Amino acid sequence: MDGADTARAHGRWWSENAAEYHAEHGTFLGDSGLRWCPEGLTEDRAGLLGSVVGCRVLEVGCGAGQGSRWVARNGGLAVGCDIAEGMLAVGRRLNGTTGVPVPLVLGDARHLPFADRSFDVAFTAFGAIPFVPDPEAIHREVARVLRPGGRWVFSTTHPMRWVFADDPSAEHLRVVRPYFDTEPYAEYHGDVLDYAEFQHTMADLVGGVLRAGFALEELIEPRWVEGNTEAWGAWSAERAPWVPGTVIVRARLPRTLRPS
Q: How far apart are CA 69 and CA 53, in angstroms?
């Protein structure tokens, strides 16, 4: 299974399931908010992007573009990019109902359809990273389209979540899978891949960011936000005190090239 296989599969799967996904999670995500993770951490609370006023900002794996609308509401020039036309269709509808229209572009995060040095900031909240076998390809592409000094922030599944049973209750906190197992979770229709998620160790995630030329600014393992009652897969208030479910990485490109 390679990146091209998963790109084709997820373009279909997320398009076919876009309406159902939004119906199930749309209230939690909001129409023009930036929620980093199922734990409930929002950008209004975290401030991970910094000021976006006047900045060109790219949301990678944007889904329906909720994060891009948050940027636009806060003075940034946002563009959302996603691999699934069905998700972008939901986003264009929300553009109209929210009155916060943002450009939404079809594209693979591993081959971003933008020119070099086009953006000041890039981010993704659980978009793209968990669904590819080669997240370093995404980091390299983001580095290409960012300007010197540009910031890259992403949230994704914490690798420790993979070792436990996929159940939100604390009683299922027993190791059932090796931390270093590279076998993805995959669903097939006959011989055709429908959907896949990949385990990436902390070394994979951070190492890929560094190899792409970024400097690591911050690594966050967010706690469950008080008052959040939304259970999402194996993420729940009951399980949250025992094991992290999300990791957030904030990194920045150097402003000048390092001497060789």
A: 13
